[in-house]
Amino acid sequence: MKIDILTLFPDMFRGPFDESIIKRAQNKGYVEINIHNIRDWATDKHKTVDDRPFGGGIGMIMKVDVLDRAIQNLHSGKTKTKVILLDAGGRKLTQKEAKKLSRIKHLILIAGHYEGVDSRVHEKIADEVISIGDYILTGGELPAMVLADAIVRLLPKVLEKPSATAFESFSPSALLEYPQYTRPESYKGWNVPKILLSGNHKEIEKWRLNKSIKKTKERRPDLLEK
Q1: Which of 95, 140, 151, 184 has the fewest CB within 10 Å, making it most exposed?
Q2: What percent of the chain shows pLDDT beyond 70?
């Protein structure tokens, strides 16, 4: 997979993609992640990427022409490419959506900034508009990192145990993940549930399912309704 990220602040991406699983995935050739400065496609001497909104209003709007040139330049004609705009008004990111996107060979992520992006990018250029939650951030850089991380870990061979994702929260079962414990068995009087030490795998699975249902009911009842 190839992921191209368009941003006004490329230095923000130093670190998140240079550590842990994402770094190993890049080193092993499972994913190629490229960070691009949107200003590289501005044509005036000041490298202008934003302007005042028509009709008046607060803040500045990112220009459609600059973003269109960038995307046209990055768009691959040989493999399927999907353009995604990270925007608080988009469809909320889910595990199901991340899994679907992990099957696309080439993704172009637009990290919006300022007061927003010209709506023609929403309407004519982006294939999807995605939000990572019902809250406002200073820009689309952090959401782009979150989306990339959610996708990359689902790629074949990236995780050492491929089956691990099948039992996580927000898997197709729609239940939150059950509680997990490790050594020491007892700490400050806080003991690991005895059932997990029993060796009875059938009863352990039953216990885990019940705990998942209880946890989901308490924290995310909306998932049970689905």
Answers
A1: 184
A2: 94
